[in-house]
Amino acid sequence: MFSFFRKKSPPEQAQAPTPAAAAAATTAPEAVSVAEPAPAAPARQGWLDRLKNGLRKTGSNIATVFTGTRIDDDLYEELETALLMADTGVKATEHLLQDLKRRVKEAKATEPAQVKGLLADAIADLLQVLQKPLEIGAHHPTVIMVAGVNGAGKTTSIGKLTKHLADSGLSVLLAAADTFRAAAREQLAVWADRNTVEIVSQEGGDPAAVSFDAVTAGRARARDVVLVDTAGRLPTQQHLMHELGKIKRVVQKAEASAPHEVLLVIDGNTGQNALAQVKAFDDTLGLTGLIVTKLDGTAKGGVLCAIAREKPIPVYFIGVGEKLEDLETFDAREFAQALLS
């Protein structure tokens, strides 16, 4: 489960609320953040177990490097190969190896098993730049635009996020702006019905127009969040990528400060191709966050290291399966430990 906590106002800003402000407080929550529960929480421990199982293929390929008895050049060469095979990328691999050698020297490590632990620390530090909570409530409504290629799990991730937001007492309005694919609208409608939230949809309509209507409706109905599901796009389809840019511009006409978040859903199984998608979509939309899905059973879990080194856009959530509880907030150290478990 995601936990939400309210940001406290600075003491100097505290003042007795007026009757009107008190009434508004019941419908307009302060900014909240999607953050990690305490590591010892049973639900979080269950999630960690699923994450470890999901990354086992990646981890086992790297772990074999540390089965020897000596810390030498051969170990580092084998580790370099294993990291590259895990789609860590050349830049991140070079960084990790240099950092690891420094840590080994400082720790005066003599056993390969010790090197494994130091590598986990190096990966956690590298991934720290990606760890950031998703803040909701600074704007009313908070408009979140979600993009991704077909098959990445975009609409399903939106449904899961909607569930957690709604369960936390936040009102959500969905925008079915993936008007080119009937199945996407139907899928989103199922999530809307399941979560008892409203949806703005139009068969065969213009995606930008649907998005505009949804943002306008979200503001008029005092919704906390408007989630805009856009059509799947390939970075090579420039005319379709331009359509995403149009949606963003039209959303800004409905609400000048929107979209407040632009998220990209990427499939962790695609490795370096996922990094290419991040770069392409960021160039078009100016991404603010990522959702990384389908990390279960992948041998390419190192791609987050590549993203951290080459395009450090925050990873708000990661997923290891299709179930609701298989999407969780990203924690750098948890991921590093799971990757090498």
UniProtKB/TrEMBL annotation:
The keyword Transcription belongs to this UniProt entry's keyword annotation: no
Region Disordered, annotated ranges: 1-28
Its EC number(s): 3.6.5.4
Subcellular localization(s) per the UniProt record: Cell membrane; Cytoplasm
Record membrane topology: Peripheral membrane protein
Compositionally biased region (Low complexity): 11-28
Domain SRP54-type proteins GTP-binding: 314-327
Keywords linked to the UniProt accession: Cell membrane, Cytoplasm, GTP-binding, Hydrolase, Membrane, Nucleotide-binding, Receptor
Catalytic activity: GTP + H2O = GDP + phosphate + H(+)
Transmembrane spans: none
UniProt xrefs under SMART domains: AAA (SM00382), SRP54 (SM00962), SRP54_N (SM00963)
List of residues binding GTP: 148-155, 229-233, 293-296
Function recorded in the entry: Involved in targeting and insertion of nascent membrane proteins into the cytoplasmic membrane. Acts as a receptor for the complex formed by the signal recognition particle (SRP) and the ribosome-nascent chain (RNC). Interaction with SRP-RNC leads to the transfer of the RNC complex to the Sec translocase for insertion into the membrane, the hydrolysis of GTP by both Ffh and FtsY, and the dissociation of the SRP-FtsY complex into the individual components.
NCBIfam families: ftsY
Description of how the protein assembles with itself and partners: Part of the signal recognition particle protein translocation system, which is composed of SRP and FtsY. SRP is a ribonucleoprotein composed of Ffh and a 4.5S RNA molecule.
Descriptive protein name: Signal recognition particle receptor FtsY
Species in which this protein is naturally found: Limnohabitans lacus
Species classification: Bacteria, Pseudomonadati, Pseudomonadota, Betaproteobacteria, Burkholderiales
